[in-house]
């Protein structure tokens, strides 16, 4: 799930539980900046496995499923 800087405004409890507790707020951009400064592997080799998981999805445990449907 992606988010924005104001997504928790007015209800700070949503960041602790539920779907809004898992977001990517510029994480990839931050990782890219860090990689540009210190990275040794080619960017494609570094991120390709995560792209595959993102496109194909992945199975989650019954316990995690129970947590996300509450």
UniProtKB/TrEMBL annotation:
Classification via Pfam families: G_glu_transpept (PF01019)
Protein name, per record: Uncharacterized protein
PANTHER family linked: GAMMA GLUTAMYL TRANSPEPTIDASE, GLUTATHIONE HYDROLASE 1-RELATED
